[in-house]
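Page 37, continued from 36.
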């Protein structure tokens, strides 16, 4: 059965609605970044860029790095945008956009988030790299999908109890990284961590400017949570959505985080751009090494 025009929206040129991409514009290895300006910060290392498109916050470049085709796309901030990006990336490879029918053969995408993050444990150094082995979503994206089978409910239940979670907030959900990708991306330069994906940058992450918080001890309680000997390491705003949507859609995903702020110590990176560049070059070479083994 064909997918209705109202459900799968295409532009006049046949490209998918928000991303403005056609299937031929997309590599099967995809780097996601939040900031549209960071796309060029990644592709500056490419041998060449073959395609560029920019619509709203979604900036995409596809090119070649050391003989391997890679797409870099900005998602903007938040899991609401992740819902758009992951669904449309999947449709580009797993739906025939002309017939509007799902393809019989499923294509698996490899998705690597290269992002910035704030540590919540004092022993995680500024400018270090954290790989999210577990992502905890404080947003509600995954609850709109039939997703219980991809969630780690035991961790979520323990966390809700530990935090004395307010019932007016969305119930946290927990999703693990792709284990094959995690093994490929880690080294003695990385930390494995439990990452919280927040629904906002200020209040949801415990920042106070003029507004009082519902729970001004939340970050301290998060930092004290422990599961099977592991603690929550960092906060950001996209990873849980990426992990959840990727698992539901049958794709591989990993989140690479450079720690620009340490919320426990009050420190901030003295050279954020340099720190991000180091994570980009590290991740690119790990991606190539992984692809060569496939």
């Amino acid at each position: 059965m064909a997918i209705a025009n109202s459900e799968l929206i295409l532009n006049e040129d046949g490209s998918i609605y928000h991303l403005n991409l056609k299937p031929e514009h997309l590599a099967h290895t995809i780097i996601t970044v939040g900031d549209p300006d960071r796309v060029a910060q990644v592709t500056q290392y490419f041998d060449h860029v073959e395609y560029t498109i920019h619509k709203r916050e979604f900036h995409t470049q596809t090119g070649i790095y050391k003989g391997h085709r890679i797409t870099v796309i900005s998602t903007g901030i938040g899991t609401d945008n992740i819902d758009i990006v992951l669904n449309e990336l999947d449709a580009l490879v797993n739906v025939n956009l002309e017939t509007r029918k799902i393809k019989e053969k499923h294509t698996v995408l490899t998705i690597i988030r290269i992002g910035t993050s704030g540590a919540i444990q004092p022993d995680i150094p500024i400018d270090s790299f954290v790989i999210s082995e577990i992502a905890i979503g404080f947003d509600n994206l995954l609850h709109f999908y039939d997703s219980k089978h991809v969630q780690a409910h035991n961790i979520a239940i323990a966390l809700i109890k530990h935090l004395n979670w307010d019932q007016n907030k969305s119930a946290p959900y927990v999703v693990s990284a792709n284990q094959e990708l995690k093994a490929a991306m880690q080294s003695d330069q990385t930390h494995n961590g439990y990452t919280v994906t927040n629904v906002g940058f200020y209040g949801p992450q415990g920042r106070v400017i003029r507004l009082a918080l519902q729970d001004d001890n939340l970050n301290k309680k998060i930092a004290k949570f422990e599961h099977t000997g592991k603690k929550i390491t960092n906060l950001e705003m996209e990873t849980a959505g990426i992990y959840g949507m990727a698992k539901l859609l049958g794709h591989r995903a990993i989140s690479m985080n450079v720690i620009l702020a340490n919320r426990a110590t009050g420190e901030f990176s003295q050279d954020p751009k340099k720190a991000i560049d180091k994570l980009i070059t590290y991740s690119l070479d790990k991606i190539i090494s992984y692809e060569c083994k496939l």
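The first helix runs from residue 38 to 43. Flag for discussion at group meeting. The chain has a mean pLDDT of 96.
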